[in-house]
Design goal:
Helices cover about 55% and strands about 0% of the residues. By secondary structure, the protein is mostly helical.
Length: about 375
């Protein structure tokens, strides 16, 4: 037995060795494949692959492909819907864009029909009827305002004004969408910071704007979207995700604004989702803090062959090939693995869960604190 296998099978984090050995043997070929690609797996990779297997089935439950009574046996994943997605398109924070693009054909249409009706959101297909510049602008508003993140029943829809803007856009155009933006901003909250960090905006440069956020969305974001489309269309082939993000960051700098890397990465991944001929969804992506933490947890960055961004790219590529998904899917799904191993449950709207009982099914202790 190699030193790495010895270390993995006899990790001091294992609390149930027989159960862990059974999981290890199930994934032994995948672990060996990782080693042949210069990645050194840790014991947590075994649990991450088990997590993905369950999340894939819970995603099917969420899409109505499995009965609502289906469970995996992992109490944390079964009861907290943060842990039920393996493809980014079906994640809660993409609910609005997916619904606007597919209309009644959206997989979650019936699930959210009552919510959409009660809020007066459009239910018809809108996205394909817009120009790329219009759609990219709406997607940028969605990401900048927090993607409706809440981790609650309205996850993906919290405070969102994008459906109203989309309706105005398809009926009249950008001018009406901007008018709708201003009206809703004055009437109530359009941002959500639950489960999401709002970008650090500039201070407003004109007296008419109360905050930098509304100035950016109204005066700057339309130009960012327009310039981005012009640049993408001028390229000879679909642009890699990282290159497109770099260009988007440079556009923010061009217009005198801070570089919102997390938000603009999410935005570029949206472009890859809906316009794969412009941005290559199979190319390498950048990673958020939780995804970075997970990759460092499931692979040993010091022992692995690759360093820096290359380490994260190789780890993500290995997982995307293994799970038949794209890099953005891996980034989104595996960013939740670190939360899962730490038994994270949101504080609000989960008071009914007994936190002493609702735990993950991992055979490992939570990782040592990084603090």
């Amino acid at each position: 037995m190699t030193a790495n296998r010895q270390k993995l099978l006899y990790s001091d984090r294992i609390v149930d060795r027989d159960e862990f050995r059974e999981k290890y043997l199930k994934h032994a070929d995948s672990l060996e494949l990782a080693r042949t690609q210069g990645l050194v797996p840790t014991a947590y990779l075994v649990e991450a692959l088990e997590y993905h297997y369950r999340a894939e089935r819970l995603q099917k439950r969420a899409l109505g492909l499995l009965p609502p009574t289906f469970t995996t046996g992992d109490l944390l994943q079964d009861n907290v819907p943060i842990y039920d997605t393996v493809q980014r398109r079906y994640a809660g924070f993409s609910n609005v864009l997916d619904q606007l693009w597919y209309g009644p054909s959206a997989p979650k249409y019936n699930r959210f029909l009552d919510l959409m009706t009660s809020h007066g959101y459009p239910t018809q297909q809108i996205g394909p009827n817009l120009t790329p510049k219009q759609w990219l602008y709406l997607a940028l508003v969605h990401r900048v305002t927090g993607s409706g993140a809440s981790f609650m029943r309205d996850h993906g829809w919290r405070n969102t004004i994008v459906p109203y803007m989309a309706q105005a856009m398809v009926e009249v155009g950008l001018r009406e969408a901007l008018k709708t933006l201003r009206q809703h901003y004055e009437a109530g909250p359009i941002f959500t910071s639950l489960g999401n960090q709002i970008p650090s905006f500039n201070k407003p440069s004109k007296p008419e704007w109360r905050t930098g956020g509304i100035e950016y969305l109204h005066d700057i974001a339309p130009f960012i979207a327009s310039d981005m489309v012009d640049w993408l269309l001028a390229q000879p082939k679909a642009v890699p995700i990282q290159e497109a993000v770099d260009y988007a960051l440079d556009l923010n700098t061009k217009y005198g604004w801070r570089r919102f890397k997390f938000v603009l990465t999410a935005w570029v991944l949206d472009i890859a989702e809906y316009y794969p001929h412009l941005v290559d969804p199979k190319s390498d992506c950048y990673h958020g803090a939780n995804a970075i933490e997970t990759m460092r947890l499931i692979f040993d960055p010091k022992a692995s062959k690759f360093k820096g961004q290359k380490f994260f790219d190789k780890a993500t590529r290995f997982l995307s090939d293994l799970t038949n998904t794209n890099s953005g899917d891996v980034e989104d799904c595996f960013c939740d693995v670190v939360r899962w191993v730490e038994n994270f449950i949101p504080k609000k709207h989960y008071e009914h869960l007994d936190r002493a009982v609702i735990k993950n099914s991992s055979s490992l202790l939570p990782p040592p604190s990084q603090g």
